[in-house]
Sequence to fold (765 residues):
Amino acid sequence: MERQNTESGFVGHISDFIESLKSAGIPISVSDKQDALDAFEIVGFSDRSIIKSCLRSVLINRMTHISVFDTVFSVYFPGTERSFLESEIALSNTINSEQVEGTESVDFHEKMFADITAAMVDGSEQFLQTLANSAVSAYSEIDPERPVGSSYYLYKTIRSVGLEDVVKIVSEEINLNDKSDLDKRIAIDKIKRLSKEFRKMVEAEIRRRLVLLKGVETIAAMTPDSVIEDSDFIYATKEEMQAIKKAIAPMAKKIAINLARKRKKSSRGVVDIRKTIRKSLSTGGVPVTLEMKVKSPSKPELVVIADISGSVASFARFTLHLIHGLSSQFSKVKSYVFIDGLDDVTTIFQGNDIDAAISRVSSEADVIWTDGHSNYGHAFEVFDQKYIEHLTNKSTVLILGDARNNYHHSNAEALSSISNNCKRLIWLNPEPEAYWNSGDSIMRDYQPYCDETYEVRNLKQLEEFVDTLS
Amino acid sequence: MSIESRFESVQQVQKALESVNYLADEDTASVTFLSQKLGKPILVEGPAGTGKTQLAKSVADMTGARLIRLQCYEGLDESKALYEWNYKKQLLKIQSVQSNDNADSWDSVREDIFSDDFLLTRPLLEAITATEPVILLIDEIDRVEIETEALLLEILSEYQVSIPELGTIEAKQIPLVFLTSNNTRELSEALKRRCVFLHLDYPTVERETKIILNKVPELDSKLAANLAEFVASIRNLDLKKHPSVSETLDWAQAIVALGIKQFDSDSTNKSLNILLKYSQDIDKVKKEFLSSTEK
Fold:
């Protein structure tokens, strides 16, 4: 019914929504858009969360894009869980009624604090949702004139509520009672999970109000969310790192597959007479299908040499995850890490526990030689002297680092010797190519000895690199 | 027609799934409903053991349709997935014609041996040619090579199969198609574009509690909630393999069988090897959750 009246406006709104998703980095084709419109036709407008599921299923096809979709959706379709048509009226009512109450008082604050604590202990998400809404009403003080985004109000509200204190107090209480450690631990995990939930609820509520107060376009422009494939390794936040980590495992597998392509049974080559005759028995002695000899598999050997110094700390974390992912795919991965000294960490990564491996790297690996600032020259020299016999003519060497040498000697001849002793030398640099050779970056000294160099700032570029391997 | 009547609304799909003991969340029910209406396959992605395959089976159960399953593996090819000519039968036919001295009619023999009678249908062709309602499940699509994926494109978008000797076989009815993937590699864009996407993650604590009670009704409801909380907690750890829903259910069953009434360190310690399959994982969970009781 609604549809008839608002046809053009509605389709326009969907188009804006899709454009917004696209500019966040999600690929959407024309037929996807048609499907989105069809989805509305099929399920109707009655239920916001069903529409959300349906739109997500036709517009998104990667797990990593889900969170971006959810944010953009909440901007374009502000509303409560069930409905989004009446939300506007409901909102103006709540704002009007709540603003009148004395929210400044100490009593109110204490009651809020106590209520949230109680809701957390009971695990009642519904109550938390109500509390989140009234916390936003009381503390966020959204001012439509101010040019700030939702994160400012989120911070303000969460701090006023004292969410961290709630978690702390509840956790302490749990620790004091005489339950077993197991029960305590589970209870604390639950509180942490609920506090995250609460945060999300507050954020969603703030965004909803902002959109209704300031209009979709303003908020859409202010929401700088982009998909995880586009976020730089160097500046990745903790949450982004988690998401990147998840995406690395399939990537490592792809690298393994691409480097091992030649193992595949080919349909050309030498006929395996024995097998062909044997198979022909089932077709009355007529060799209908030819069986080929399986080519002897080439085992790719991978040698990873990675900079784990402070200047590339986030990148280093990513690097270590990549090494770990590769180690689980290849039987023959040798890994070395360096800052200004270089150490063999192959055995550390052979276990399965990545966290343990990372902490062992920082405690056990002998990577500091003098001052703990990266020194590529010295690192390559050490590799050339101590580990060069680990390379064979089948090895692929992967160097991960920004080539910022802190004005030390480049020692390019050591890299040249490494290059001469392996099949292929690939350098992945986490900095934009435009910054190479600026300041203390000395890519130009090393580049002549690399078979290939790539700028790998984010997952998308890593994926492109992986595709070139095949 | 029976399939149609089962898809009236999202709520109805959810209820119908529940009646065959599959507790779908709203997201799953919505996407299942939509895919049937759009006539597009569903690509279900998510960690192992979250009920991806079970979803297809349950939809088959609830609609009374026949489930045709294609298990993917590395090296799967056309002759295993689509169709194959029955060489042996063809040869027999030729030999029998020759012995009857009907040598004049080679043309008719040729016509004959490339007909339906000599065609071995494999799951995909079977799903297309079926006259009764079917559900096609293409399981673990991420296991086939990227080249083999292309095999599926024609069938997934046009619901037809081209056989050079016979021509194009079109579907008699559009089957509901489920593809599952554990996301061990990225699927091709071409394939993804043809599907609606459903990400099936581990269930929330409440839903997992319900699932446990649904499948293991003997279990005390308080204990079931405890188990679900515990499993949710250890899924936050960085384990080699996180416990799946089916492993949680196995664990719940074991707890019933062992006659455990109380959820505590001791009972958990004893039965943890049912929930976790790697010794490193068991050690890690013991260290994190049960360490002080060990001392």
In short: Chain A touches chain B through 49 residues (CB under 8 Å). The CA atoms of residues 291 and 461 of chain A lie 40 Å apart. The radius of gyration of chain A is 29 Å. Strands of chain A lie at 301-307, 333-338, 342-344, 395-400, 424-429, 452-455.
